[in-house]
Fold these 2 entries.
Entry 1:
Amino acid sequence: MQIPILSWLVFVPLIGMVAVMLIPKERVSAIRWTATIFSGIAMILSFWLTWEYFVNYSDTAAMAFVEGPYDWIPTLHVEYFLGCDGISVPLLALTGLLSLISIIASFGIKERVKEYFAFFLLLEVGMMGVFVALDFFLFYVFWEIMLVPMYFLIGIWGGPRKEYAAIKFFLYTLFGSIFMLVSILILYFNAEPHTLNMMTLMQTAPGMTHTLQMVCFIFFFIAFAIKVPVWPFHTWLPDAHVEAPTAVSVILAGVLLKMGTYGMLRISWPMFPDALRSLSFWIAVLGVIAIIYGALVSLAQKDMKKLVAYSSVSHMGYCMLALAAFSSTQAIAGCMFQMISHGLITGALFLLVGVLYDRAHTREIAVFGGLGSKLPIYTGLMVFFSMASLGLPGMSGFISEFMIFVGAFGALNKTLVGIAILGVVLGAAYMLRLVQNVFLGDFNLERWGGLTEINGRELVTVVPLVILTLYLGIYPKQLNMLMSATIENMINLMAR
Amino acid sequence: MVQYLTLAAILFSIGLFGVITRRNTIGILMSLELMFNAANINLVTFNKFIAPETLTGQMFAIFVVVVAAAEATVGLAIVLLVYRNWRGISTDNFSILKW
Amino acid sequence: MTENAYLIPLLPFIGFVMIVFALRWKEKVAAGFSIAMILSSWVFSIIVLIETIGRDGAPYEAFFYITSFDTLNFEIGILIDSLTAMMLIVVSTVASCVQIYSLGYMKDDPRFSRFFAYLSLFCFSMLGLVIANNFFMIFIFWELVGLTSYLLIGFWFEKKSASDAGKKAFITTRIGDLGMIVGLLLIAGGCGTFNYNEIFSSVAAGTLSPTMLTTGLIFLFAGAVGKSAQFPLHVWLPDAMEGPTPVSALIHAATMVVAGVYLVARAMPLFESSATASMVVAIIGITTSVMAASIGLVQNDIKRVLAYSTVSQLGYMIMALGLYGYDTAMGEHSPGYYAGTFHLMTHAFFKALLFLGAGSVIHAVHTNNIQEMGGLLPKMKITAWTFMIASLSISGIFPFAGFWSKDEIVATASTHPVFMFFTLAVAFMTAFYMWRLCFLTFWGKPRDQHRFDHAHESPRSMSWPLAFLGILAVGAGWVGMPWLKAGFASFVYSGEAYKPHADYMLMGVSTVVAVSGIGLAWLMYAKQVISPDKMVARFKPIHKLLLNKYYFDEIYDFIIIRPVLAFGRYMWTFDARIVDGLVNGVAWLVMIWSDIKMWFDKWIIDGAVNGAGWVISSTSSLLRLVQTGAVQFYALFILASIVILAVVKYEVVYNDVSWPVLSIILLAGLYLLSLVSKSVAEKAKTAAAATATDSGEEEK
Amino acid sequence: MNEAANPGIVFWVLSAIILVTGFMVVSLKNIFHCAIALVLCLSGVAGIFVLLGAEFLAGAQVLIYVGAVAILMIFGVMLTSNLAGKKIIATTSNAMVAFFATVLFGGGTIVTIFMTDVWRYSSESLPIDNVMFIGKLLMTEFMLPFEVVSVLLLAAMIGAIVLARDEES
């Protein structure tokens, strides 16, 4: 019997949360370090898991590190069933990394520190859980668990319109969740014997009638699309991002958005291949709209965080485009790459915007200018990630975008993909506009003379992301090897 | 045997009546002792007539006696405390269960 | 050495990394290290060239896969053939000269070491671009040179115009790259590989349909259009002159901008299969050439004139390559390929020289405007002479390098009358504007005495590279003399060997054209026999059109940039108003609905509830009497309840009583309860009195 | 069997004493008199125990109840009430209802006793050496309850001391 590493991965943050709650709230630094240590343990576990998976399991498509299924609520056939494969392992590692980084980035939080870190660790539990759950009930529970801390994290520690943003986020996601629940129930009652086991349903669900598949598919799609977010379900995102504290934005962009695409890839795509075939064109259209639309709207933004937020819409549009091209290995692999690299890059961009916001207390693009001469390291990092975001070769964003284009071009309508490629130019336009207006040009010494260079703690949070972005951009082979067997299997499942 | 049981029943009823009606807290305690004794009579009776070989009834009675003693001690201590706080031990004084 | 050719791009990269992480604070060391690295690359390039000549230009290829998806392999590798070897030499030579030159030019710049870091990064990218063995890799470096170009144009980013120009360059070339991606997807995706040779053989085997190939090639060419600043994406290059002059020399004259030409040359086996695509290439080339040359006639900024000249010359090369592709597709022989690549090389040298010379001039007089210069010849001898050598070279005067390469281009165009006409027109215009520049700058009287007094010859770090390039500007063309048995043509030729022959007729024509151009310039600006002002007055509308560069910027601004920005803003409003408004509208509807429900709740449901509540509260105020708070009373109540329940149960179980009897019993129970309540009421009355008396007694 | 049917004259005498004194305990107005009546009543119960062959229990009854508890009560009375000799309303106003209910309860119980006509009498008799047997049982089978009850007593004792202690001292 091996160690139940996935359970540990999920529950270490929970233990951390309990530990944080046991510390008196005055002992702020003890709370911070406890949270850091526990999320650090989770991160190490997730990395170790990735390594183990890479070494031992990456050539098979089967679930690894499986725990269960153990009966949990036998009357409902609910099981405790965890497992991971090539598409969840990288996301687990990403979650572990970004959680730790976010917690370190949250050291600046001054008020209600104890609750903050407790919520954050709970959030990590939910995120980890979603990526390892193989039982629909468990999946749904983890999916909903995340909502609560997220709501409070935005609603308590957020910006001026935090309540609005928090409620909007909450309602939006809950709205989607309801559809998901209905769909899960349809699956449950259509399976004979009734079951909530994803692996079993993966085999039986494609046998459902076309109509039923369509219903389930669309319901799941709404739930996941809100999370991604796919145009036109995206309007919660800018508000939530702008109002949320920096670290929460990082998690939001880095991990939460991925749960939507992960859900599609894990659940709705392989389970309802008939429906997928009927709808793939429209999904691609939505993806292309998101790419262009997000980029155009980014171009008009005055607030840095909002710009990055809308660029997320655009970047996740690439994921949707890739998912629509479900028959192509390159596209699906590109989608995974895009998920990871968007997590890294956008996470870093939010961190960096947060760094500037901490010092200047504004995020308006127009008030800055010429910071390049005053803050060279900060500028270097920002330019680096802007370039990564616009898909410069040598960084992870390029690999993913290129892969997606290659895959989608072969599998989808060429004109559509051609329009999507326009997003590359628009991406360059809005990122360069940001860089130019903030970092280049005249420096307003009077107003910004007091700005200080990025400090050590903030560097610690950003540098790992720099390294990973470069690593994935220059040598994507290992990540690809990690995923390829699973992706092959996925494609076979979707081709049923 | 029914005679013993009847005696116990009557004694118990008397005790019960006392518990309900006595105004004096110590009186209530005394009535409680009556009820305990009624129960003990029952236990010993059953022991003698139904299951003499094990002596379980007597054992129980002994424990009841002990517990009763403990109860009396604590009860009286409480009464003393009440007395000190309320300057009286009439049950009219403390209807604090009603708020 | 060929096996280790990957070192050639890698060395400058090491330079970049070292400067950024280690040598940043020691400016001199940083610059020295960077120069040492590029010089090593230069030496290696020479060795590679020699070895390649030794192999008779046979290609050498080595690569490894970075990853593969499905059957599509992504590889990093090197391909050394004659074209690559030639490009390596060009790039490393110019880069070395420019870096040395920068020592002097950038001496007092606060970001001195950063400049060298960027230059090193550029050299890495550019050398990587030319050494690549597949389209994926070329695209990577293609983007990287774009990045370094962006960084270097905006090097003096405090200037708004500089950062604007950087952005413009990046985005404009990205538009071309977009086409390039599509082209790659069409061609490489269609063939299932990125590797040059595999694609070439695959296309030769007819994997792609002709339409697909043509479309793909035109899209691919869009990348070259962007990078090589061809019409209609040429607008970024003149603006890119905002960058430091060495950058203009290196990136925007000699190397990066010829990447597009290189791409076309590299993909020539494909263009050979598609006459349509080749024709498009040729037409774009000549259009650009004519347009840029005509704009160059009237510009007053020394660097902009050179920039337009660059664009024009690049158009030349592109045209030559396109015509070659067309001719070959038509089954005819053509020197175009040889002409294009040859001109690429010679142009790189003399244009770099021109830019460096211009930089030297600017360094001396601190202005870009040629109208404020004049008479600098005696003050800056080396600069002036090398500049004029380069001008002769670009004008195509025997025996300078430009003569040989331009002659081949003319030879290529000679079979196509229309092209021939425009080619000669461009040659004329080129000679004119170059010598207009020379005469205005170095001849005549100083037009701005203050600046003239200030002028001086540049330091040796700047003049020596000029001299070196001057030699190349003369001699680089000699390798391509038509009389050579194994000259440039046989070296670089990709297909069957082309034997260049000296066509004295064409040589004569082009020389006449060039000389007449120079002569006109001499008459107008040196002798001033013909007044330029009069000419301007006579051709006022045309002059204005040219001065404003055919209003390209304005047109783009009007039909592309503004609409896109406006569209973005509109979309944002749309997003905030409509999409989000929809969401909020739904929320609003829900609110209205809940208002209605609230009204209903308040008056109907709440009414019922309140009614019930009233009943309950009045009942409970009665029942409240029962809650005396006296424990004994509760005990009594429990007792009474036990008794009643026992009786009821007894009756039901043992006597099987009917409901009437039971109700009598219950009535009895109720009577009991009423007694209880009665006693309670009494108690309530007496309680107060009792406490009063108790406390009264206590006091006694 | 015979004994079960007819308990003999001593029983009736003891019963009378118990019931009368018991009723006195709950009804007398003077609480001190009540305490005296309680002593008598408990002594009567001890007698009943002797009749039932529980000599040890009878002894314990006398020692604990009569000796300790009742005296404790008397002390309690004297400590708490300076009205030891006074006459106040002894019963609450619920007396009538309570009487009625108790009579019903007791009557019901007695009726139940008499109606249960199949008592499963045992044919055996009590062990001769009653006390020793109880001692053995206490040390073997009822060891744990015994210990527990000791602890309980100790706790009660300490609790009583803590509760009754004067704050000043």
Entry 2:
Amino acid sequence: MSTIPKKGINATTPLVPEPATVVAVIQETPAIRTYRLVFDDPALMAAFMFAPGQIGLISIFGAGESTFAISSPPSQKDYIQFSVMRTGAVTSAIHELAEGDRVALRAPLGCAFPVDSWKEKDVIIAGGGIGMAPLRSLLMHLLDNRGDFGRIQAFYGARTPADLCYAEDRAAWEARADVDFIAAIDAAHPDWSGRVGLLPGVLEEEQPPAAGAVAVICGPPVMIKFTLQSLERLGFGDQQIFTTLERRMKCGIGLCGRCNVGPKYVCTDGPVFTLDELRRLPAEL
Amino acid sequence: MSKENVKIVGFLCNWCSYAGADMAGTARIRQPAQLRIVRLPCTGRVDPLLILKAFQEGADGVLVSGCHPGDCHYNEGNYHARRRLEVLARMLPALGIDPARFHYTWVSASEGARWAEVVESFTGQVKQAVGGGSVSQTNEVDKMV
Amino acid sequence: MRFIASDGLPRLLERLREDGAEVWAPRVVRDTLNTVLFSPWSEGDEIETGAYSTLSAKQLVLPATERLFAYRYRLTAEGEKIEIEAAGPGMHAGETVVFGARACDAKALGVLDALFLSTPGQSYNDPHYRTRRAGLTVITLACTTCDSACFCSSFGAGPAETAGSDLILYPVGGGYLAEGFSDRGRELAALDIFEDSSQEKPALAETAVLELAGLEQKLLDIFDDLDFWRGATEQCLSCGYCTYACPTCHCFNIFDEMQGDRDGERCRSWDACMFYTYTLETSGHNPRPEIAHRYRNRMGHKFSYYPANQGEILCTGCGRCIRGCPAGVDIREVLKAAAARPATPGGALQQETES
Amino acid sequence: MDDLIATIKQVLAETDMVLGWTRSAAAGVAVPARFHTPREAEAAVFDSTCVHNLAVHLPRLKDRRVGIVAKGCDVKSIVQLIAEREIERDRVRVIGVRCPGMVDVKKAWRCFGFGKKVEDAGGQVAMEGKTVAREEILLAKCRGCRDAVPVIRDAAVGGVQGQSVAAAGELAGIRKRFASMSVDERRRFWRDQFSRCIRCYACREACPLCFCRDVCAMQTREPHWTGGGVDARQSEMAQLIRISHMAGRCTGCEECERACPVGIPLMLLLEEQNALIEELFGYRAGTDPEATPPLLTFDAGKDAGGGGL
Amino acid sequence: MRIGVFVCQCGTNIAATVATDRVVEAARAMLGVIHAESIQYTCSDPGQRAIIDAIQQKDLTRVVMAGCSPRMHETTFRRAVQRGGMNPFMLEMVNIREHCSWIHPDIDQGTLKAIDLVRKGVARVRRQAPLSGSTVPVTRAALVIGGGVAGIQAALDMADAGIPVTLVEKGPTIGGNMARLDKTFPTLDCSSCILTPRMVEVKNHDNIKLIVNAEVDQVRGHIGSFEVDIRRKATCVIEQKCTGCMICQEKCPSRAPDEFNAGMGESKAISIAFPQAVPLVAGLRKEHCRQFVKGRCGVCQKVCPADAIDYEQEDEIVSGAFGAVVVATGYDLYDWTGSYPTYGMGRYPDVITSMQYERLLSASGPTGGHVRRPSDGAEPQQVVFISCIGSRDESVGRPQCCSVGCMYTAKQAILTKEHIPDSQSYIFYIDIRAAGKGYDEFSRRAQTEFGALYIRGRVGKIYPRGGKLIVMGTDTLAGEQVEIEADLVVLATGLTAARGAGELARKLNISYDGYEFFTEGHPKLKPVETNTGGVFLAGACQGPKDIPATVAQASAAAAKVIGLLSRGELETSPVVAAVDRNRCVGCFKCRDVCPYGAVEQEQLPGGRAVAHVIDSLCQGCGLCNVACPPSTISLKGYTDNQLIAEVVEVLR
């Protein structure tokens, strides 16, 4: 994995977050909200750098800290964006946040997608549900540097039209000629005139060529499972496929112990892994 | 010796004792101002741990009051409460908490005057109990008592 | 060699205290059922030099709970703001002396250093740990006897290990021979409480030896052999004793301790990989739901992952987990059985695609 | 021992496994073991170091047919688990054993050293030339034991009926001191005791009746009774949670106290609570599989409490 | 989190002793509070408008209302915040009037306390989640269990209101105990004259389905939608075919006891209970029938002109769906024979119960209304009545008053005199309880007009002597022993719950007392409800009572059911317990303590059994929350964390 400069973290006390403010809240789906955060310290905000795939830990004091993928692209200097699905105590507390509310943030952490090594290659992106969050960051980064890559195909699947995030972005991607973006929902729905079908099937219908390509998939386990099978049928090798892992994290810096899969720590060795790496890890997901 | 500046937490059921306290208020019966009332549907909702938690958080006294046995809005709630609270009350000495700092009783919606008497006399009892230089006074850090 | 008479020990420790150090030593705790713990020592306190302490001395560098920072919500002219104030190391931040550590305890500190003091860029350099570690003096009591739970000889020099110790005291007639293994240790040995001696170092204990060769790979090879792990953990009750008593276990939890709604502290606290809640995710999913999964990770971390990542085995053979286990689990039996177990195929994707 | 092994083999014929003890070479005392085959059962032992209450495993083996070698006090836990419907009576085969009183292994190790083979015979406990009076080294619960005869049993070893029960001893040691303390002294006593707690939850995990385990409120933030930190107040609250939840359920098996690595005398509180539950409700947990635990029911007419000031 | 705090001045009611501006200022500094103001009269229209405006302008998500008691105005303000667009349960009221300004004259004390209470309210509302009740559809049908006068009255009232009613009766006919009475006090109406027309009305009512010889087998579901299995016992008679001609009874060779006549006469193995029975259908009692006992007979089958006899008939389960249940299982008479050894334990044929005497008095009884004593058929001259047999008698464990004994004994004494003008009645009594309208007058008439001799005291012993019964008692007023040579002794036996009442209660999950009388929802305010929603009580099954009280309660129960079933669906209270399935360990202590049977077992995929709360049954007491060690069942709106936060905040 590429080593990314990790500015934004307090260098001497990396377990201490920095105060930040919510500048915008977007209700994406009934269960997902997007938050745009800005560090209260303008110098920190100006120096903030990261790469797609990296993560941040949002603190709601009293409730605790939780890990989320950064969903804005590195070129977005005005804010750092996270999409949060409501699942537990911390995410419920985050869902209570309104514009102007104060939080604290540790970011960026973890390793990024090695986009530097993808130059000239075709990139296939497949995101399911909340798994689209890091891929939004990635896709926008690829588009910011469009000339560096070959064909870009992006697939985004959800159960129903109401479960799709990023409506504005989707419209923009669909309008662009230099990316083949397909959003699909699992089953026909009166509010939906677009593609219908499970993501692995849609992917196979589109038949992206494996040669000289990389594929990035992110989503719920069952989606990953079948998408991997589709990619294998399309001829993708284990080193061409990238995904991200999710684990409960506390420290984010490889110390506290819980996020390891065998000898690898998701917080520092991941969250981005190639399929090849995953195959060599013990079966504990 | 008695301590004036005490804090007392009261857990009152909504149907009888809270209403009884309301009635005491409506009748403008003056009462000591140290009590803070937490309203619950029933004394059956009072977890003994809430009482211990209150002591640990620095309460000088804890008072629980509900419907008279047999009159529970939920028929059986205060019967269960009575068992739970009696066990707790008798455990307090072993835990190192003066049992005089805890009391549970029954006050109906019509017993406004009695409610005021309960508050008056329990407040006095607590002031007496914590006034003797117990651990809570000698060491503010260790609040349980 | 230098020598200190038995009755000189309290004088030594008192001298250290006078110099401003806090002194910790193994003591039988009053009102307990014969529990020996490293405890703050002051003059007149009896020191237990025979029985082993139930808990290790790691609390002096990794306290069971410590503050990371305090937070406050404050109403300002611009509305509500958060103030964050990073905490210092707090406990044991100054000079600390631990007396009566054993070779296995001292060595464990070095094992932890590999992670907590690793060079910047590689991993994390923990400021609290660094401060405490820098102020810690380890006076080790060499073991001339041992019990059947000891197996330090499986790791390097065993009872003769000097890593991590500043000063080692060897029991001889009437007192202890003293040898310094750091500047601090040599400085102490030079004090006038010690005298020169020509006595020979005593013979050290011979502890049980556990064959560890090949274990690093073997634990990966039998990762998917759940039958093995279930069998090995059938007595385990999944408490956190072994991890908390272990001188090398260092996993921690981070949580907020509220003082009302506006103020609070973020703390880190020892956590145990044997707890179900350790890896429980908010969705309800748990990658290590069974005791077998958790124990497997514990063995893997100690004897495979940590050696692979940090070059050190995360065990020094102190035997505490064996002596104190309420269910009588003996880690050596599990490792022996693991070594004898044939490898099984598997990999991360296997489980994912099957689940 | 032959009788025990033969009985275990018999019970194995109708169960998936039998929980019992075997001798640990390293520890020199009995350690818990599971016997799945008659061959494994050959290693079974029973002596005065079989301190563990194996009933702790039963809630985790609900779907299996399990035999269990059990002392009278262990059987109380089994009875209570049945009374609380946590396990089914007909899935458990109880092998009652004649209990000689159990040695406090930690004390023994303090006297003799860990791993030394402890010989228990005729009022004396001995090893390598040292002897200690048996009385001094018995577990507290064995003094004045009222429950040596297993309340339920499907098989018996060593004639469980009519065995002698250790005489009620006078309060000794901590118990004696505690009994004479004032309320404020007790407050300080507990603050000191709980300042040692490391929140390892061995007390809970060793308790056969603490079957909430993984979701136990000692550890949760929902409900957030207490913080997760190691400090006397938080640890005390955590322990009060357990003690409160044991009211009317604790059979006094002493496993929590035995498991506590830092020697907190938890039984002082549990014994007190058990005694007052018996006084108030005439109920002793673990003596009647049909009885309803007292805090799950009430007696409108007989229960007393509450009232005027 | 966007919290608004509103501090009501209540004119000067609060403002006089609580500095509301200081409370507002303190509230502004509380976490999450973005709006705080003090309002003169919050409950007034402009006051409520101010709250609504603030909610809408500042996008408030939670509101704390400091003012009067929530028992006064909680509903008012819940509606107000709802109009403002919030969930009504995101409002928390703190009581700074009844619990503060009105009882603390010192303004500093009052203000500090008010601030504490507001802080408590803020902490609590911060942890509040929006709540909404669920709706459950209501099955528009009612089940009445028991076909005595209570069941008949309730069934007719409901049926007249258009509700389909199923009336289940254990015996072969409806009418219950009242049908066996001769006359009723205090009017001396003929009991069957007033009852039988009602019985026929039941039979003919389009909205009533009558099932006799049947009992409730199983009850599932809850208020609004019960599913009930009714077991119709085999009677060997096809009900639809039987014409009630009674030829079978006439020809039947097997004798059988006459239960309708309380054992005073004799009946046949196949019979109709009495000529006015509804339905007028014969039934066969196998235990007395030669066909079944000896294996051969078949007379009834041969003689039946309607071909209605079917010896192969089996029990039949009739299932039905109901929105509500009225329990009207009535009473049985106390069985005295086991517990009054000095009265002969039933060995003297001329010591009979009041119901047996009632049958002797009745024109439809075994003697055609001529009073003849059982032993020799002679007309008695000296009749002794003894009150309080199996009631008000601690020595037999029945301390309660039967509430009708005094009155029916007076009635029977009067009727005795009417039947046998030269007879003399003696009544041993403890107290004369005649509290109803016209009752005291009636019992006095028994003495003054009909010459009954009242003796205050108990009878110590009865023994036979030469064809007479010697009754030895004490006259406690005169302080002397009394000895009467009686021809007939009538025991005023008390009322007990119907046999099997406890078992039925367990099926319905309603409570009952130590005598198996069902427990009403509240002794004062819910006399016909039970603690199980949708199950109502009528008549003596709840406790001994006379006919007018029974009928009144039956109509009351019917009114409750009519009200309940007039709604298409029921909204359940949102303040109910809920289970966190992920964390439930399945110990079911919650179910053990639930007074309402609102907790059931839910089997999760994978086999794990967890608790599940039936919202429509849960009343929100929170007993389960405390019984659950890890609080995985928790009471919405009163969660542990809310209560803990309140405690922490008031102590800061």
